[in-house]
């Protein structure tokens, strides 16, 4: 395998370990500075140049994209994807995880624990938002930030108001998040590779510091996670669209609470405290994927006109409740059920005799018109709304776009 590691820090511990692990396994590997690429676009031939030269062929790419270059870095990764080079993390997954609000929005619709969070812009909404997340103390976070930077603890409502007002005056977007008291000063970092947790550690803050990040002086210790924590970490990474991820969790009273999913997790702390070859596990996973790659199913299957991926919800009172998948006759309508979501369970390729329950969700591939017909008539929107002529007189005060 010929592997490219995209990194602006070639001498960092993580980059060096990944390079070393690849060489030990007989792979060719190069560390390429993400900012030295030039993206070339022309009909049918997406291409890349590196340091003013046409890039040679690579089998796989391992992105290590820093927060400060997210936009350009994901553009480079996306170009590799369009060139059919396997990327350990896709541009879509990196973008999802890099924005804290976006990642929590994705996680919130699934049966995964997250701290209660609010996002507001209007000053009048701050106090109600603090109350909704459980009152002071609260955690205030910048939407983009790593290694504990931009994470503040406000012990009182007045302090929280002042911090938020100051940050917003500096054009910063902030999240207001419930403070999980039972987890004060400690969290879990799990490294997910593919569909399993390969290593985990508990990070404990020192002194008065409430942030447990190793970069903030936190002490790390190896930990063996329960199945609940492992499953939560893997599902969180998959929801983000990441194959290699560091998943940070708080140990709440009701179970794991996802705090953040990192697309470029550091390896020094976790390898040092666990003694495990995490870099090697990542390289071996990439090599296996090059031999038999996973693909972006939604992107590939939606190319067929009239066919695509859709999610069918089975509400209480639906005519499908109590029927097996076979009895619904959806396969006769050119619809195939790929996955059944039931509560916090994920059932891939469910049997045809599986009986449906209320609140089930079916992830399907098939004829879009057939799937739309399964939506109740009152809730169904018209597929092709008629386009009317503009009124003769535009509303008063209207302004043209892009003036």
From TrEMBL:
Q: What InterPro entries does the database record attribute to this sequence?
A: ATP-grasp (IPR011761), ATP-grasp_RimK-type (IPR013651), ATP_grasp_subdomain_1 (IPR013815), RCK_C (IPR006037), RCK_C_sf (IPR036721), Rimk_N (IPR041107), Rp_bS6_RimK/Lys_biosynth_LsyX (IPR004666)
Annotated ranges, domain ATP-grasp: 104-287
The record's section on NCBIfam families has: rimK_fam (TIGR00768)
Which chain positions lie within coiled-coil regions? none
Q: Which cofactor does it need?
A: Mg(2+); Mn(2+)
Sorted alphabetically, which PROSITE patterns does this protein's record hold? ATP_GRASP, RCK_C
Q: Tell me which UniProt keywords the record has, alphabetically.
A: ATP-binding, Ligase, Magnesium, Manganese, Metal-binding, Nucleotide-binding, Protein biosynthesis
GO MF annotations in UniProt: ligase activity
- Write down what this protein is called: RimK family alpha-L-glutamate ligase
Region: Disordered; residue ranges are 375-403
Locate the RCK C-terminal domain: which residues?
Answer: 296-380
**Domain of life of the native organism:** Bacteria
What is the species of this protein? Litoribacillus peritrichatus
